[in-house]
Amino acid sequence: MNKFSLSLMREIKKGELPDMVSIVKRYKRLRPIFGLKEIFKDNINIIAEIKKSSPSHGAFNTEIADEERINSYIKGGACAISILGEEKFFGGSYHSIRDLSVNVNLPILCKDFVFYKEQIDAAFICGADIILLIARALSLLDLKELYDYTTSIGLAPLVEVTSNDDLKKALKIDPEIIMINMRDLESLRIDFAQGLDVMKKIPQEIETISASAIENKEDLLFIKQKGKINNFLIGSALMKSRSPEIFIRELKNVC
After folding, report:
1. Buried-most residue among 84, 92, 128, 205 (CB within 10 A)?
2. Domain boundaries of the chain, sorted by first residue
3. Which distant-in-sequence residues (6+ apart) come within 8 Å of 228 by Cβ?
4. What is the pLDDT of residue 186?
5. Structure confidence at residue 255 as a pLDDT band (50, 70, 90)
6. What's the CATH fold of domain 6-252?
7. Among 76, 72, 59, which Cα is nearest to 84's?
8. Closest Cα to residue 251, out of 229, 227, 232, 225?
9. In which element (H, E) is residue 125 found?
C-alpha cells in the first residue's frame, strides 16, 4: 500500500470522478436533509464515526455489523453519524453512506477528502447532510468555492483545521463550524498542544468540534476543560469498543 499523503489522495479522488458522476446519474436521494448546527445542544455532543480502517491504526474489529453499530451509537446519544467515503486507506465508500444513512434520523457526515464538486454531488445523492472540507488539502480559492457550493445545494460544510496556518485560511471564508483535528494529516502524530492552541484562537461565534485523540473519558474531559468546547468527533475509540452504546453514554456523562 502506498503511504498516505494529501497529494496521493488528490490523485485518487480525481480517478474516482467517473464513479461520482455515475452515482448522481443512477440514484436519487432517499432521505430529507438534517441540519447540523442546531444539534449542538447538550453539555457534551458526540459525532460517532463508522470506518473499517485508518492509516494510523490499521484495520478495526468488524465483528459488529455497521447497521448494529450505528443503532448503538444512536441509543448511546450520538448527535450525528460520520461515515467514511474514502476506500483505499479507511475502507469506506459512497455506497456505504447511501446504504447506512437511509434509516438514520440524524445528520450524516460524509468523511472524505473532497477536492471536486462531483464528490459533493455524489455525497448529497447518497444521503449526506454534512461535507468535510479539509483546509490543509485545499487552496483558499478551492476551499471557498467548495464551501459555497456545499451550502448552495442545502448541505452543511464542516471545515477541518490542524494548525494555525490552516485556521487563518479557514477564517477567511467565514465558516459557521470548524473542526480541529488533533492528528496531523501528514505525520499522523497527535499534538494536543497544537490543537488546543488553535482552539483558543477560534472566534466564539463559530461552533467548534474536536476530532481525534480521544481514547477514553479522561481524554475528553481534558480537551473539554482546556479547550472549553462541548463537541467531539470520535472514531477509532468507538470502532475498538465492543459496547459503543455504553461508551458514548460514559463520555456524555463525564461532567
Report:
1. 128
2. 6-252
3. 199
4. 78
5. low
6. TIM Barrel (3.20.20)
7. 59
8. 232
9. helix 117-125
